[in-house]
């Protein structure tokens, strides 16, 4: 992931943002520097933080999952969004949830983080920061500019999606797509993430390569009160 992110960053940073002159690699590629003697601006890899969150209704034992139009059919995932200037991580979690699905949340619990170098081409060094967020309102109002659809899913539905026999085949296809993307092959020839089998997947989520999978799976297979108990830690 580091190599892919650095290669993309070098490709995007060939010119100085201050004076427009060419930049060259320095310190074995750890940074770049403007060749203009009057400028000599030093450039370092830019990190773009993203919050990704699983919205939980602890009373009804369910979570919100959303779909983007670019997703393969029947795939659902966590909500996510970039942090805006002057915003804390927790503020970004609440804003993104409100903007995308119209739900207000109260308590927020940190889960984990993950580097993600396969996002938009202009943002090659993303850092995904994962949270559980507990809903205080429950009516979904989808922003169609952000999502194609969003729904509440019960624990049973999510567990079934994670253990369905076809899920493994779909995840192998998704993992292959990520591998092609990281190696640059997808940009050259594209890739097809469809899997031809006799039985269709009713619903599935991103595979273990993605932090979304671990947010969803850790909730689905934990005891109903285990995540709630972290609020008191």
Describe the structure.
The protein has 233 residues and is an alpha+beta fold. The chain has helices at 2-12, 89-101, 155-163, 165-183, 185-189, 211-220, 226-229; strands spanning 23-26, 31-34, 42-43, 48-57, 62-67, 79-82, 105-116, 126-135, 149-154. Strands 4, 5, 6, 7, 8 and 9 form a six-stranded mixed sheet that branches. Helix 3 packs across helix 6. The longest helix is centred in the C-terminal third of the chain and has 19 residues, at 165-183. It is globular and about 65 Å long. The protein starts with a helix and ends with a helix. Residues 187-198 have low confidence and may be disordered.
The unreliable regions are 187-198
As a percent range, the share of helical residues equals 25-40%
Principal-axis shape equals globular
Backbone structural class: alpha+beta
> How many individual β-strands?
9
User: Strand content of the residues, in percent?
Assistant: 15-25%
Gyration radius, rounded: 20 Å
The biggest beta sheet, please? 6 strands, mixed
Straight-line N-to-C gap: 33 Å
The chain-level mean pLDDT equals 85
